[in-house]
Structure formats: C-alpha cells, structure tokens
Write a structure and sequence with these properties.
By secondary structure, the protein is α/β, with parallel strands linked by helices. It has helices at 4-8, 21-33, 52-60, 66-71, 95-104, 121-141, 174-183, 186-197, 203-218, 250-258, 278-295, 315-328, 346-370, 377-392, 405-410, 420-434, 437-468, 470-497; strands at residues 12-16, 39-44, 79-83, 107-110, 147-151, 162-163, 224-229, 231-233, 264-266, 275-277, 301-305, 341-343, 399-400. Among the domains are: 4-245 and 271-316 and 397-408, NAD(P)-binding Rossmann-like Domain (Rossmann fold), CATH 3.40.50; 451-497. The chain is built from 18 helices and 13 strands. The relative contact order is 0.10. Bound molecules: NADP nicotinamide-adenine-dinucleotide phosphate.
Length: 498
Amino acid sequence: MVSIPEYYEGKNVLLTGATGFLGKVLLEKLLRSCPKVNSVYVLVRQKAGQTPQERVEEVISCKLFDRLRDENPDFREKIIAINSELTQPELALSEEDKEVIIDSTNIIFHCAATVRFNENLRDAVQLNVIATQQLILLAQQMKNLEVFMHVSTAYAYCNRKHIDEVVYPPPVDPKKLIDSLEWMDDGLVNDITPKLIGDRPNTYIYTKALAEYVVQQEGAKLNVAIVRPSIVGASWKEPFPGWIDNFNGPSGLFIAAGKGILRTMRASNNALADLVPVDVVVNMSLAAAWYSGVNRPRNIMVYNCTTGSTNPFHWGEVEYHVTSTFKRNPLEQAFRRPNVNLTSNHLLYHYWIAVSHKAPALLYDTYLRMTGRSPSILFLFCSLNHILVQLHFSKIFCEFITYCYILISTLQHHGSKTTWTMYVKKNCTSVKKIVSNTFLDLLSRLRNIRYGFNTILVILIWRIFIARSQMARNIWYFVVSLCYKFLSYFRASSTMRY
Ligand SMILES: NC(=O)c1ccc[n+]([C@@H]2O[C@H](COP(=O)([O-])OP(=O)(O)OC[C@H]3O[C@@H](n4cnc5c(N)ncnc54)[C@H](OP(=O)(O)O)[C@@H]3O)[C@@H](O)[C@H]2O)c1
C-alpha cells in the first residue's frame, strides 16, 4: 500500500477554512509531510480590507510555519489563494477559478464553519449546511475527485448517550428547514430556534448534525469521509508543542484560571474532559483521506476523533494540573491566586458565578462608569461564562465509540498515548506567552476589585448578623465600647504628658 506522502504526491488539494485554527495546522502539516503535493487551493474570503492573497500571506508568515520555512522554503508556490465567500451562491467563485478547481482537484478538506455556539440559526444554516451543500455540488462536477473529507464535531449528536462512528438521522430534514427559513422573518426564526434545536445545546451543534446528513445524502456518489473532533486544543507535538493562536475553548479557560479570574466551573472531578490536540486532529484527517483514497471503501467513513474512551483525562485532573502549573509559574499581574472550584451542584455553581464572577465585574464597571470610562469587565466575565456554558454540554453526556484503530493499525502505529500532564503544562506555558498586553492591563485593574468586594461583603454580612442576633449585637457593642475606652485613655494620657 502506498504511504501517506506517496498518496499525496502530485495531488491537487482544495481546502476551506485555511485561515482558521484547524485549517492553518492542516495546511502546514500537508505541505511539510507531503512535500510532493502538487498544489493546495485555499478558498478564502476578503476580510477587513484584505484580499485573500494578503490573508494567506499573513497566515503563512506566522510562527506556525517557521519549521516548514526551514525545511521547504519554496512551499509558498504551492498555495493558490482563491477568492470565495462560502455563504454566497456558488460560493462566489469566478468562472475561471471554478474551471480550474473542477478540472484539477483530487482531494477536498472542508474545514470552514461558523463555530460560534450562539450564532443565529439562519447564519449557522447558511454556512454550516448550505455552503456544505454547495461544495458538494461543486465536488460532483470535479473530474478527478478522489476524496471529500468533511470536518464535523464529535458533539453533533451529543443528545445521544453512545455515539458510534455512523451518521445518525437528522433532527429535521435539512431541505425542509432551508425552505422554511426562506419565508420566515428573523423574529420568527429566533422564536422557534429553541424548539427546533430541542435537546441539542446550541445552533452550532444542530447545524453540524444537519451538515453530516447533507454530506451523507448528497455526497452519496462521492468517496466521503467525516472526521469528528471533540474539543480541539493546542498542538501536542507538531510543528512544535503548545501551538495555539486564540483563547477560544480550553486555552481561554487555562489563562483565566491562571489569572485567578476563573473561580468556578460546573463539572464533577471525574467528568471526562475530551480534549484532543489540534495536530492529532490534523494527522487523523490527512490519514483518513489517504485511507479512503487508497481503499475506496463502499460506505462513508466516520471517525470520532476523541480521547475520552482511549486516553481519558478528567476535569478534576485538568483543574489540578492547570492551577498547580500556574502556582509554580505564576502569570504576571494575576488577579487572585489560581484556585478553581469544580461543582456539579447547580445552586452552588450559580452562587459562585454571582459572587466570584459577576459581582466583582459589576462593581468595577460601576467604578469605571463613575470615573467617566467605558465599562468592560462585565463583558470579559460574560465571555468567560460563555466559554463555560459552551463546554458544559461536553462534560455530562457522551461516550464516544472510537474505531479509528482501523487507521492506527493500518498505519502500524504504536504511538504513545498523549501524556496529559505534560500536555497541559506545555499548554499553560504557551498561553502565557501569547496573552496580549491589553488583556494584561485589564487584569491588572481587576485586582483592585477583590479588596473592595471582600470588604463590602464582610460589612454586609456583619450588618445582617447584627440585625438578627442579640449575641452579635452584644459583641458589637462590647468591641465598640472597648475601642472608645482605648481612645479616651489614649487622649487622656497624651494630655497629661503636656
Ligand atoms: N475548534 C474546535 O474545538 C473544534 C471542535 C470540533 C470540531 N471543529 C470543527 O473544525 C472545523 C474548523 O474549526 P476551527 O476551530 O478551525 O474554526 P475557526 O478557527 O473559527 O475557523 C473557521 C474557518 O472558516 C472560515 N469561514 C467562516 N465563514 C466563512 C465564509 N463565509 N466564507 C469563507 N470562509 C469562511 C473562516 O474564515 P475567516 O478567517 O474568513 O473567518 C475560518 O478559516 C469546523 O468545521 C469545526 O466545526 C472544531
């Protein structure tokens, strides 16, 4: 059987989402490990006044590509940036670009998606479902297409207890939903969204489930594979350990814990933290496309790219390693000593959120308002709470059945299991390096809240105590009279001296 680099030799690969977290790593790894790949068409949209070409230049000039630059300085020539807005009809491709793509693409990696959990349903459907449908239509016209690789999420069916490596029936027929969205106004769409998504936690998960069905149904004549990563974190080994470029997901939590602003999380200590390093996801995607390309399996291949069942790591362990790493190697200008309280008790969790997250934020924002500045701290805590809510669903339900051993055994790989302790430590040191200065400024201001907030809390509790208990009142009067006597004595003795 041909090896993976041999399979990609001379192939033209089309990649969506190349400017995103996963897409960048995939682009780098493909060009580094398969140096004889012919070309990579990256579908990129114009954004913030930058052309797709400028955006690609920016991506490949980042640190992630340093190793590739050393090993293969000419890699740039293989990347062809193509202007494409995936939410537009026919992906907004020009006729010439479309022709080139149709004539020459051999393998497609579809990574682009909106990963915003609270995206409104119309936009989530537009990108995650309709754009996928459009890409499949394009793929069907391709003359030399060998594999269509779709990146989904392991939580697409998180409403189920056991998640096998199959495409389950969708919550609704995607075609019917798309038709209905055409005549509904935004207000109506927002009103029915909770009913539609039902027992799925958000529109992202819901639309990713619909996209899988679209890929299965409409890509029936194509050679399709689906990779379903769980929670994607910093790189484990490649191109170097600890690569991360944003604070979404687990890295945001690590930094918040290190700064002492994350005080509580809703999880039990032994809930699975199904983290998966980004380079593992990328390796699996490249290997899965190779497997389908070489073996041409009759059925759609689905891979749960998760760690919970093969190499479990629990939220209690994450909490321990993150806080102990940051206690030993503290972040600058931390708000409090790192200490995260995991609780599965609903009431306790909301109590700690109110007391340790929201109240200090409100207090400081009031201070900012009173001093004529714009409030910003509550926004920071809301973003943090948003990540917590996002991750919550991942901690309770699912057990993933992972047969990616098919791939592992085919590759004759006996690789070591990810050493989570080292992984989390490396991740913490990496996030430490990329915390921006603005973030640091904000946090340094936050530190003062703690003293103010604790003082007010003590006064309030004491006031309530005095109002309710005779004994507390007696102690209070005793302390006040003692202070008074001490002051009188002090005054009398100082007058006597003169
Ligand atoms: N990150 C995770 O933890 C995780 C977990 C499970 C599954 N996944 C899946 O992995 C894939 C990649 O996720 P990610 O974390 O890399 O997301 P990401 O960083 O947000 O990247 C999303 C990519 O999609 C592109 N995109 C979005 N809207 C577009 C549009 N209208 N036209 C063209 N391109 C558009 C973005 O381009 P711009 O730069 O132009 O916005 C970006 O390149 C997704 O399918 C996601 O569902 C991710």
